[in-house]
Design brief:
Four Helix Bundle (Hemerythrin (Met), subunit A), mainly alpha, transmembrane, metal-binding, oxidoreductase, COX15/CtaA_HemeA_synthase, 2 domains, disulfide bond
Length: 289
């Protein structure tokens, strides 16, 4: 089949595009929910406005979200099939997780805009939370899949890559804070919510990459603080979905989670520099000889 494939289309590029598509889909899903457009189609899922095509702007937003979700689903399936054509077991496992969870995500999405659309209070927080958890798991599996596809082309040592990923994460934290509900610098509009999720998911992906790259090195113990930073970032993502009444207490909790992420990642960067220092001194000594 390779002779029928364009030379520029490689598995790693396909997997990276799929991961980026899912990130975009999650941003679009947040925007759709924040605008209340999911309720525009209400109990008509998978139809909108009693037909295949939307008739209003809210129903178009929901319809477009479903269209992108369908396309993303095929790309996720294609990524898994391509992964199973290879020999790397971990790549196959990660891609398979994304595919296995896909029907569950579709089902929860259907419940979100049908059964929950009939509730007096609108979307149920439990269903929205489940929708986010499954989506984030699929996204994480695709991030790992993409990282695995690039494993044979990295030129930097693993520790350098991990440190760079942590620095990227540290740089994304203040942007995520500025777009979040912690401060009112930017009104927490549907567009701001989508942007917040885009930045925060990029932050999450950087932490996943750092955790993956420190794994096979002597600094593997740093997976613990990175795992804690991932958990704190997940908490930030949950709070960004308006699953609770955003009181002063929850604002303080949200702030604390951001601070915790910064401190944990900062500690990892410091530890990685200390880990790499002896190697650099030895390298200078050898070059001096």
């Amino acid at each position: 089949m390779s002779q029928y494939r364009p030379s520029w289309l490689s598995f790693r590029r396909f997997a990276a595009f799929t991961t980026g598509l899912v990130l975009t889909l999650m941003m679009l899903g947040v925007y759709t929910a924040a605008t209340g457009s999911g309720l525009a189609c209400s109990a008509q899922w998978p139809l909108c406005d009693n037909g295949l095509l939307p008739q209003t702007i809210p129903s178009f937003i929901e319809w477009f979200h479903r269209l992108v979700a369908m396309v993303a689903g095929f790309f996720i399936l294609g990524t898994a099939l391509w992964a199973f054509a290879g020999d790397d077991r971990r790549t196959k496992t990660a891609a398979a997780i994304a595919v296995v969870l896909l029907p569950l995500q579709v089902s929860i999405g259907a419940v979100t805009v049908t059964l929950n659309g009939l509730l007096p209070g609108g979307y149920a927080p439990s269903t929205q939370g489940a929708h986010l958890v499954v989506a984030l798991t699929i996204f994480t599996a695709l991030v790992v899949t993409t990282l695995r596809t690039y494993s044979d082309v990295w030129t930097r040592p693993a520790l350098d890559r991990a440190r760079l990923a942590c620095l990227v994460a540290l740089g994304l934290v203040p942007v995520s804070v500025a777009l979040s509900r912690v401060f009112t610098l930017v009104p927490y509009s549907p567009a701001a919510q989508a942007a917040f999720y885009g930045v925060s998911l990029a932050l999450f992906a950087a932490l996943v990459a750092a955790a993956a790259w420190v794994g096979p090195t002597p600094a593997s113990r740093l997976r613990l603080p990175l795992g804690a930073a991932l958990a704190a970032t997940f908490g930030v993502l949950l709070l960004g979905r308006d699953l609770v009444f955003y009181t002063v207490t929850w604002r303080a909790t949200n702030t604390a989670l951001f601070v915790l992420v910064s401190l944990l990642v900062g500690v990892v960067v410091w530890a990685l520099r200390r880990q790499d220092a002896p190697v650099r001194r030895e390298s200078r000594g050898v070059s001096g000889d």
